[in-house]
Specification:
Blueprint: H1 2-10, E1 23-24, E2 31-34, H2 35-42, H3 46-54, E3 70-71, H4 73-89
Antiparallel strand pairs: 1-2, 2-3
């Protein structure tokens, strides 16, 4: 349960991301999260993230030169909303 509470507080605004070390790329103050970072933050599998993306629940994250997903703060907020909605439904 503690892990979920940390995940909820991890993304509290467009500018600040707490408790998670993001990877900065060469753009101005943009934060990018690797797939494994997002999986650990929300305790979900890679397959779940990719399925949510296929189903349109998450907007497609940008890709790096290797075609690996780099999740933005907006993507992380979308994932947070999905998990919160699922928790309410249960």
């Amino acid at each position: 349960m503690c892990r979920y509470l940390r995940a909820w507080s991890a993304v509290d605004s467009d500018r600040h991301v707490k408790n998670v070390k993001a990877t900065s790329k060469n753009s101005k103050n943009k934060k990018w999260f690797k797939t494994d970072q997002v999986c650990k933050l929300f305790d979900v599998s890679r397959a779940t993230l990719f399925r949510w993306e296929r189903e349109g629940l998450i907007s497609g994250p940008p890709r790096d030169w290797r075609n690996w997903r780099l999740y933005t703060v907006q993507n992380v907020k979308e994932i947070k909303r999905i998990i919160q909605a699922r928790k309410v439904l249960l």
